[in-house]
Amino acid sequence: MTFAPLVQVAHLSKRFRLDRHHYVGAVNDISFTIGKGETLGLVGESGSGKTTVGRCLLRLIEPSAGSITFAGADLTGASAAELRALRPRLQLVFQDPLASLNPRRTIGQTVAEPLRLHTRQSAAACRAAAAEMLREVGLDASRFDRYPIELTASEQQRVGIARALVTRPDLVVLDEPTSTLDPIMRAEILDVLERMQAALGVSYLFISHDLTAVERLSHRIAVMYLGRLVEIGSTRALMRQQDHPYTRALLSAVLDADPTKPIPPHVVEGEIPSAVNPRDECPFVGRCPIHIPVCRDAMPGMADMGGAHFAACVRAPELVRGAL
Amino acid sequence: MRSLIYIGRRLLLLVPQLLLISIATFVLIRALPGDPARLELGPLAPQEGVDQLRRQLRLDQPLPQQYLAYVERLAQGNLGRSWVGSTEVSADLAVRLPATLELIIGGMLLVAVVLVPLAMVSAMPGGGIAGQLARKVSFGYGLLAGALPDFWLGLVLIFVFFSLLGWAPGPEGRLGILDVSPDHVTGMYTVDALIAGDLATFWSALAHLALPCITLAFVYGAPVFKMVRSSLESALKADYTLYARAVGLRPTTVLRYAMRNAAPPSIVMAGVVSGYLLGGAVLIETVFNLNGLGQYAVQAVTTADYAPIQAFVLISAVFTMLVYLLVDLAYFALDPRVSRGATR
Amino acid sequence: MAFVASKGPSRRLHGVRRVWAGLSAGDRIVVLLFALIVSVAIAGPWLAPHPTMTADPAQRLLPPSLEHWLGTDDNGIDVFSRLLAAPRTDVTIALVATLLSVLVGAPLGVLAGLFESHPRRVLSLTGEGMLRLLDVLQAFPVFILAMVLVAIRGPGTENVILAVAFVNFPVFLRLVRSELLSLRQRPFAEAARAIGRSDLAAAFVHLLPNALPTVVVQLSVTVGFAVLLTAGLSFVGAGIRPPTPELGAMIAGGAKFMALGQWWVSLFPGLALGAIVFVCGLFGEVIGRALEPGASSAPRRRRAPPLAAAAAATNAPAADPQALLAVDRLSLIGDDPEAPLLETMSLSLRPGERLGIVGVAGAGKSLLLRTVLALPPPGTTVRGRVRFEGRDLETLPAAELRRLRGATLAAILPNAKAQLNPLVRIGDFMAAQIRAHVRCSEAEARRRAAKMLVAVGLTDPERRLDAYPHELSGGMAQRVCIAIALLHRPRLLVADEPTAGLDVTVQRQVLDLMLKLSKEQNVAQIVATRDLGIVAHYCDTVAVLEGGRLVEMGPVAAVLTAPSSAVTHRLIAASRGETA
Ligand SMILES: Nc1ncnc2c1ncn2[C@@H]1O[C@H](COP(=O)(O)OP(=O)(O)OP(=O)(O)O)[C@@H](O)[C@H]1O
Ligand code: SF4
Ligand SMILES: [Mg+2]
């Protein structure tokens, strides 16, 4: 399946200054695209910079460098007014559903608010549209006047999704929408997201550290480590064959619930190093079981592994050949 | 190293703070209608004296100059004269400060030895009948303490313990009418009497301090009490306490560790309250006729004696700033998350 | 600016009635008392049975009697009458002053909060400057500042109001600012920006309403405090002066008679003052509670429907003679005896056996583990029995129970970083733990601690012992907890979500370590987790909980490949990201 491009991110970086000599390299020189109606999964462990990428994409935080093109328009240079006009087309769903909803507003008010801000419809029309959207994400009309605290976590997250989708956006950034939910609720939310994408043709940037969820929802998957993109490719290709040692480690950490399946050997030791003042080298070098001296010389470039599958590892070709 | 930098920075902050305080006190008096020199010397002073002070205060020059003159005078320890008592304000303060310190220290001691332990006991679950009693007492105290006016409480204590029971001396000052004040060393009668070995005077001074200190502790100890209780309670409910119990630490160790967590917020609260104590002393000294700084200020206010007012305001602000400095340093020392920064 | 669907007046009235209906009896009393105070403040002077301002030397200092209920003062004025008339002065001053201070302080607080984090340097400096000025202002003790302000401007109602308002506005400025700053960190504030609200609009539409309960509570506290301040000022003669009836001045008028035994002149005004302040404080709390959205109707715990499988599982025989741990018809009862938190659970564990406990959030996994450790949450009652190594934990003396815990019965609780006391060094904690169970010197204990840290794969043990928990990563903290659990060769390790909050590549390291050590030392384990994958590969048996009940239990291979209960089905499907 191929998608017409919707978002193009080129050489995006974000640094958070700590003091005069120190900064967190939260995102370093990342490029990717998202197509219309496509879901790009963004995986990586805590602190790898996933959230920062998502926020930069919506310009909720200002990127330090790089450019973002959205539907042909340059987002990085957009003025505050231009940005506000784009808001209905660019939306966000949060990790913690309860915290992302204003506790003093009813569900209906929350979902109607984007419409009231961005359309000229009457209050009644906005309410009706909001109620309709709530129904579509699986909440019945009786919930309309409830407060967030009166709902279950799964219902709360549906409200968050309805708020994001009510303006019919082109792109929604889903920042770990299921990570605080228990497995059954998680599956429900994934269902809703999938259904809504089929109905509305919206694109998702699906951020998660949960590979099972990402695998289920994404057309393509991008893997981040310590602020760098290390591998990107179609879900099928990447699940079949990982061309970066870190992706292998990540996948080997997933335990299947089927006790008859053997568990993958577990490959890495140690923990993620600090992101303060990152050096120009492969970010994985300290933990990589197959590292060689060149890995320290510079950040390896993204190598085309064929089939629109890229990996940033100097030994990726050997890895693919099975020489390691 | 890190600590030195922190302490240095914190001390440096004191400079602009003191500067602003001196400006504020300066402005406070200049805001009055009328001639500051005349105000300071009083309505009865001869015109020559007033003119001389006008020159000294550079009142004919622009405001910044006047401010400099004010600071210069401060730097020489000259706080002006009280026209009501015809005395140097600095000399008056030297006499009265020890009385106030005695009251404040006594009050804080009571808080530390009575209220803080009570708060701790009532924060602990269990404890049998004694624990239940402590919790009842502390509940009642917590309800009442914030609401009762200190000056009224002092009067009620006088009525009960002096008029009714005769256990305590009346509001006659720091010593009985027949007592002779001990030789001046610190100015605090209890301490000076002990130094002089004069036990009779010591007991008399202590008896005269008892009710004022109880009043002060009862009213101003309440926020400290509540903070100790609630912070120890939440420390004892915290995950880390459950874990400490789950791995079988001794109950005393569990408690000791929880107390470490309750200490920083309690100390901050104690600091904030100490900052208010000079204000509290004003009313309590007046009720008990203790002749301290606070009562001095009240007399000055009622007689429109501006030099003492200005001096008192300045001193109380500086006192508060110093207390806050101590609090910050204590917090820094107590919480490794501040002093040893988060590193990963 | 478009405000979203505000409620009509008819709904609001309905709201007031609903709030009243939602109040507890105690809260209603507080509201009524507050209403009483307000009515006395309004109508008091007209209700007074005797003149309140005219002296009558013939009636001087009469003690309470039928004629003068609360006696008379030194001017011969009826104390009760004056007491009815006086609150008007104090309450009016306090209310007006508080209102003034919140009207000035709150908007300034919003500005300070917005400016402070503004990218424009001029604005951020302005915000910072405002706060530093406030610091200096607040260095002047409140009472002294108010007293001097009145002294400078002269006594009189307006000046007292101004002084009281002036000393209180910083409170609201700071409160609103800090509320705003902390609310801005909340995701819903970011959500407001994400849908296209400007910062200012978001502050007023989304943040300020959420600061309301806190401000209201502070408002009522400040009214009470302002009443005290007004009375205090009048008491020292720097506020309202006689003959105007005022509580502080009344107390001052009777002060000298207190020592002479004529207590009634001062006593009653003081009691009235205390009552006003007290009720104001309570009233604020009531209002603050009533303002919490949906406070009355949080979602109820859902109970599992009775299941045939449940009955079968709970009646499993507990009398396994080889059992290391035997849980026999265990129930945990919370507030509602009709809906126990855990219901008649029975299970047993042999030495070296690894049992996984699974279930959705709120199924009772953690409660079960806490009860097994004999550490049920406060306020709950345990029924049934937990026997460990043949001993009933319920009846074991506290001291013996303690010696058991952390020695043969070890525990790992979720999120290691939260389990370690932030103010205690790792080494101190471990040494205390060791010395709580075996007799040895501090140095010896530290040596053993260091050895165990190495055994769980931590390098540089000396540095770790010196560290505070915040100086460790999540993975290191978890290893420390495992090290603590293994210090005394446990026979059973109870672990609640041992990998929650860890990076996925670290999770496997921790699980492998636990497995290795458990095999080496023949340690039985109970592991509660939401992750079926962990159970599938690291446990021998599995128990499935739902709504506080044990619905299924058996060997892992059997339960996970051929589940008998609906929950297990759904959990297995969910682990693949599917809905059953
Ligand atoms: N405002 C900030 N100031 C300083 N550092 C920050 C800030 N926000 C994020 N960081 C740092 O940037 C890095 C990337 O953070 P980010 O939140 O994007 O990671 P993430 O992949 O979303 O992690 P998680 O899975 O925990 O959500 C981390 O090291 C984080 O500590
Ligand atoms: S570049 Fe080197 S260190 Fe990095 S992943 Fe590849 S082999 Fe490992
Ligand atoms: Mg994130």
TrEMBL record, chain A:
GO terms for biological process: peptide transport; transmembrane transport. The keyword ATP-binding applies. One of its GO terms (molecular function) is ATP hydrolysis activity. CDD domains: ABC_NikE_OppD_transporters. It comes from the Bacteria. Residues 7-251 form the ABC transporter domain. It is found in: Cell inner membrane. Keywords: ATP-binding, Nucleotide-binding, Transport. Its main location: membrane. One of its GO terms (cellular component) is plasma membrane. It is a peripheral membrane protein. InterPro entries: AAA+_ATPase, ABC_transp_ATP-bind, ABC_transporter-like_ATP-bd, Oligopep_ABC_C, P-loop_NTPase. Belongs to the ABC transporter superfamily. PANTHER family: D,D-DIPEPTIDE TRANSPORT ATP-BINDING PROTEIN DDPF-RELATED, TRANSPORT ATP-BINDING PROTEIN. This is ABC transporter ATP-binding protein.
From TrEMBL, chain B:
One of its GO terms (molecular function) is dipeptide transmembrane transporter activity. GO terms for cellular component: plasma membrane. It is found in: Cell membrane. It holds the Pfam family BPD_transp_1_N. The keyword Calcium does not apply. Keywords: Cell membrane, Membrane, Transmembrane, Transmembrane helix, Transport. This is ABC transporter permease. It comes from Chelatococcus reniformis.
UniProtKB/TrEMBL annotation, chain C:
Residues 87-284 form the ABC transmembrane type-1 domain. It comes from the Bacteria. GO terms for molecular function: ATP binding; ATP hydrolysis activity. SMART domains: AAA. It is found in: Cell inner membrane; Cell membrane. One of its GO terms (cellular component) is plasma membrane. The chain crosses the membrane at residues 29-48, 91-115, 136-154, 160-176, 215-240. Pfam families: ABC_tran, BPD_transp_1. Keywords: ATP-binding, Cell membrane, Membrane, Nucleotide-binding, Transmembrane, Transmembrane helix, Transport. Residues 325-572 form the ABC transporter domain. Its main location: membrane. InterPro entries: AAA+_ATPase, ABC_Ni/Peptide_Import, ABC_transporter-like_ATP-bd, ABC_transporter-like_CS, MetI-like, MetI-like_sf, P-loop_NTPase. It is a peripheral membrane protein; Multi-pass membrane protein. GO terms for biological process: transmembrane transport. Belongs to the binding-protein-dependent transport system permease family. This is Peptide ABC transporter permease. It comes from Chelatococcus reniformis.
